[in-house]
Write a structure and sequence with these properties.
342 residues; alpha/beta; Rossmann fold; 2 domains; four-stranded antiparallel sheet; 13 helices
């Protein structure tokens, strides 16, 4: 097989190769005499301007998948499968080679900006530092570019705010700083890992609207890592639902929300709070606990928590397959298809 180089990859893009292709990604960690399978067969395809949400509870494999894609996992991680960016295989690249792609090709916005930002540096200097990673600019040029990025992420009085330290800014402002740093090199792919989790509802909406606007402006692809299906329904083109390291349902957003098949996806949707819910009424939750990834139950991993469980669920793991056009799921008893033989 002919090796894919950066030059042949660019030719491939013109021929219609997707921006990102992930096939059968698997990530495991050794923990004593146990093997923790954090990601077990993740696949997705992403094109320029498209937004994909990866949703699920904590520990479902969302963040590990994104870090495997960008090469940010520790050396102890065992990774297999394929991650191609513009046709170029990323798995197996050295850390030095990967650093060339972080920034101009892909970037991440993390959940907690307070931990990601340097508390001893002014925010403008931190953005300027990101600008200079791949561009040989003078200090004055970098500072000017930092202020332009602050304006781009809609921070008022950008010149003044560039001289502030992170602790002087609100949570929403700090997250805008993180977005400015991520966009410093105009990446083709942005991965937002729970980027709005710690924010209030109003600020959350402002940040999501900002990301949507910037995506349209630069035709970026976006992977949104979240546990919030309401956000996924509003801002994405496709949804991938993960449970216990595995993809259990995947479809275009409108199709998935109109025809939920996987009981786990249904449980996540039912847990979304609604304004018309009666006062003091208990919020629904997904019953039970997420399984131990080092000791998964036989059969379907969701079977101890599933209201539709039968004996086959306890004995045989359902395969992820495209049962309807564009709609894949892994379930022996999908919702809405009672009595239908798949």
């Amino acid at each position: 097989m002919k090796a894919v180089t950066a030059e042949t990859a660019s030719v491939g893009m013109a021929a219609g190769i997707p921006l990102l292709e992930v096939n059968d990604l698997r990530v495991s960690f050794a923990q004593g005499d146990r093997v923790i399978r954090a990601v077990d067969g993740f696949s997705c395809t992403l094109r320029a301007g498209q937004t994909v949400a990866v949703v699920g509870e904590s520990g479902s494999g969302k963040t590990v998948s994104s870090r495997a894609i960008t090469g940010l996992l520790p050396a102890t991680a065992r990774i297999s499968g394929s991650v191609r960016f513009e046709g170029l295989e990323l798995l197996g690249l050295s850390p030095r080679e990967l650093r060339k792609h972080r920034g101009p090709d892909f970037a991440m916005v993390f959940q907690d900006p307070a931990r990601s930002l340097n508390p001893t540096m002014r925010v403008g200097a931190q953005i300027a530092e990101a600008v200079c990673v791949h561009e040989p600019l003078t200090r004055a040029q970098a500072e000017k570019r930092a202020i332009e990025l602050l304006q781009m992420v809609r921070i008022p009085a950008a010149d003044e705010r560039s001289r502030d330290y992170p602790h002087q800014l609100s949570g929403g402002m700090r997250q805008r700083i993180m977005i400015a740093i991520a966009l410093a090199q105009h990446p083709k792919l942005l991965i937002a890992d729970e980027a709005t989790t710690a924010l209030d509802v109003t600020t959350q909406a402002q940040i999501m609207d900002l990301l949507s606007s910037l995506q349209r402006q630069f035709n970026m692809a976006v992977i949104m890592i979240t546990h919030d299906l309401a956000l996924a329904a509003t801002y994405t083109d496709e949804v991938i639902v993960m449970y216990a390291g595995r993809v259990v349902e995947q479809a275009p957003t409108r199709l998935l929300f109109s025809r939920v098949r996987m009981p786990y996806t249904r449980a996540l949707l039912d847990a979304i709070p609604h304004l018309d819910r009666a006062a003091h009424q208990l919020l629904p939750v997904v019953s039970g606990r997420a399984p131990d990834l080092g000791n998964l139950p036989p059969g379907c991993p969701f079977n101890p928590r599933c209201p539709r469980v039968t004996e086959i669920c306890r004995e045989m793991r359902p395969a992820l397959a495209e049962h309807e056009p564009g709609h894949r799921w892994a379930c022996h008893h999908p919702i809405g298809l009672e009595g239908v033989r798949l």
